[in-house]
Amino acid sequence: MVNIEEFISNVVARAAEELYGASENLQIQKTRKEFEGDYTVVVFPLLRASRKSPEATATELGEKIVASTPEIKSFNVIKGFLNLVVDASFWAARFREIVETENYGMAPQSGRTIMIEYSSPNTNKPLHLGHIRNNLLGYSVATILKANGHNVIKVNLVNDRGIHICKSMLAWQLYGGGETPESSGMKGDHLVGKYYVEFDKHYKQQVKELVAEKGITEDEAKKQAPIMLAAQEMLRKWEAKDPEIYSLWERMNGWVYEGFDVTYKAMGVDFDKVYYESQTYLLGKSLVEDGLKKGVFFRKEDNSVWIDLEADGLDQKLLLRGDGTSVYMTQDLGTALSRFEENSLDDMIYVVGNEQNYHFQVLKLVLKKLGYEWSDNIFHLSYGMVELPEGKMKSREGTVVDADDLIADMIGTAREMSDELGKLDGCTEEEAYKISEMVGLGALKYFILKVDPKKTMLFDPRESIDFNGNTGPFIQYTHARIRSILRKAAEAGITTEGYSDATLLPEEIELIKALSEYPAVVRTAGQQFAPSVIAAYAYDLAKQFNGYYHDHSILKEENAVVRALRLTLASEVARTIRSAMALLGINVPERM
Predict the structure, then answer these.
(1) 32: Cβ–Cβ under 8 A, 6 or more apart, which residues?
(2) Which residue in 43, 101, 405, 423 has the most C-beta neighbors within 10 A?
(3) In the 8-state DSSP scheme, what is residue 28?
């Protein structure tokens, strides 16, 4: 299929070369809406070679292009900017290509293998709103990268070890009374999260008592609190594979995994492989030993191992504690090495919040110093936090927005609002639930993914389910509306066969232009790891179609050839909306 941007670039470059013997650094962009034209050429880089004014150069170049290129109908010049008008026959040919292309917008195989890690939950609490942004972003970027022809491996690294896990385990031992998911009726991840909050409550109380009784500072009290000392001892026992502690750890983590699986399924995300930190941290330790031998790391008097990055504008970084236990950096080193070696990766993307920007800067630098050149192919897809109108969330204080609760609320709100607007009239109860689920999740996903990942975002559930404006339900409803038109046409025996694109209306050309941009949009989203690019495109296409449909009848059009064209155009818009929304992990309903 013709790459339109490439075609225009080649046409302009050829004309500039023939006229001036120069075609470098030419900028070509879409013409702004207030001017006539499809593509605008910035001619200023040609002035040295043309030795003419910007207007004269643009006019000469425009005349040359129109005379030699039948696809370019006309041109106009505004202050040295050359606006090219593409002939309708060119857009008609592009439309035929779109209709005939089976997986329109999808790129051929690139031969690159990319691993993307997202989710990365801790097994001491359920998933919350912040995790939802992480999972939706990671899953969507993976899907977009696949659409760009890459071999993509989706992975989850479960933080299943460390002091935070021991806090939940210890609190359950001390205050749980043998409570289980079965006896409490709670999801396993919720039950374990309950004891993480319980630990924090007792820890704060002990710190307060120590400050009052011993007259020590709060920082000193935090170090001396018996419950914290017991949690640290539990971690040491776990690393020593103490049978009782290890068995409790396996049991409680099992509860959490069952809970996570339910949430992942509800969210519509999955993984090709799950890594566990408990299985990777030892490899990290061996890397640290190698680094010590090479002189990359150094050992302090308390036996802890560090790397000095002050010469690189950073600070000293801990790699192993004095008691031999590992830190996050230790296991991330080991995990990175095993992934690149096992999978022959070209790139590794970590979807992790922006509070870890420094961590990944250090990770890449340490790997580089250890001699691993592939460290340059590690990319941290950093994203901002999700905030609510009432402020930030804190999991240890139990003030998070639980992912399961939010998903259920979104589906319930979608049902309520759809009922109010009569969008479920005539549906069976089963159909009504499926549509409500699709709309509720679509609203949540679109609201989160339409925002640039780097930005902190404010999430407003009710605003996200609006059927008007830049929302998932608006785009879903547009798709359902087109599918309804196509069903009615089929029922009336009206087909799209024999359509003619000989007399395209300006609005139809604009829709074809929008459709023709889809492959470039998918490519840009893949290069920038930005689902927001796809979201903006889907919204603009839906909005544009609605404007067209408002002004031009489809089923009531009496000219059969024109009617067939409009049905075909509507069908292609629906197909492209469906494809774009799928890249965001969003399903679109057939009826609504």
Answers:
(1) 40
(2) 43
(3) E
